[in-house]
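Re: folding output
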Amino acid sequence: MTATSEHQWFKSSYSGGSGTECVECAHGDDDTLIRDSKQAEGPTMRVRKRTWHTFVRALARNGLR
């Protein structure tokens, strides 16, 4: 799946800003898209929004957010 321009992408808050950023996300109504920031026109991964929020909460619980 490739991303379309309709999505509002944002970089991970842990991206370094030195050109080594690795993850960008875009939230839709029912899902979250994830892509490699260095390959913006490359493939994306789509996960259900609820799954994404569960993943982020698990990272936070383990001090990884």
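--- second protein (sequence, then structure) ---
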Amino acid sequence: MSAVIQQQEGPQSPGPWPGGDGGNWPRYPRLYEAVPDSGPTSGGNTVLLTGAGLQGTSQVTFGGIPATLVTQDPPGGSVTVIAPPHTAGTVQVIATTPRGNTNSVSYTYTVVSPSGPTVTALVPNSGSTTGGTAFALIGTNLTGATVTFNGLPATGISINPTGTVLTGVTPPGPAGNVPVVVTTPAGSTTVAGGYTYTAPPPVVTLLSPSSGSAGGGTAFVITGSSLSGAVVTFNGVVATGVSVNASGTALVGFTPAGSLGNVPVVVTTPTGSTTVAGGYTYTAPPLPVVTSLSPSSGSAGGGTAFVIAGSGLSGAVVTFNGVAATGVSVNASGTALVGFTPAGSLGNVPVVVTTPGGSTTVAGGYTYV
């Protein structure tokens, strides 16, 4: 036996064991050894105490601190206990039975350095670049851990009492695979496989305006998220002048020409596509409106520069007595038109402005002199 038996009572002499089978037994219970004879200061480990006469053991103490009884050998040859916590050092273990206390055997408490964390699984192992994805780490020794994704700390960390499950929320990160590091007071570990950030598909919350001229050229704004790199189509035709702000939350452009009625609008980025709810409705271009023609008269030889003011003049053709004016140009807002008169007969003639939305006759006409 490795432990020295220290008899607490006087020397034992053989004699009949009370209630026994009449054989010669020691008068008092005794311990031989503790197996193992050492353990961590935190306790919690199983210890087998061998001896004799241990039937009915009601208590075992380690340095005066009661252990947890687990099992007893009916013949009294052993008792199994869970060691209690204790400060470092050697203590005496004593069992209490109906026949009294046993002798003591030695047991040494040692300081065990905590083990570093281990991770066996990260679930999920991918998520949006915007962060905010709930995750769980499965492993051991996670108590007191912090977690970083590409060097940025995760938030909302929570760990179960046994230190085997850690939950949290990912920070934002760049698209692609990044390292995930778990750190505790006992050390750090890098999660195998890391974490893959994926850019989310585009999201559209508003298209304004939701309708406009079938002639196209209507300025529009799309608001939402993840719009960077977007292409916008109206019924499959690409919008022009598309530009997206730095945060990817707003997009501007100009509608292409289209057929009258409602058409689908699709926003496509490198990470996916989305169809705008409600689409876009093409309406007939407005009728042109003329508020003035200046000058209202000029040489019958033609070539007189003129200006027409009004609205809805985009795409206009102007005729003087049925003959088209030359050099016609309209400003971007469709409110002013310039050109040169054709040659004509002396006298007043009708002037007609025609656009994709219709035609209007200029009040007062034009007088060739």
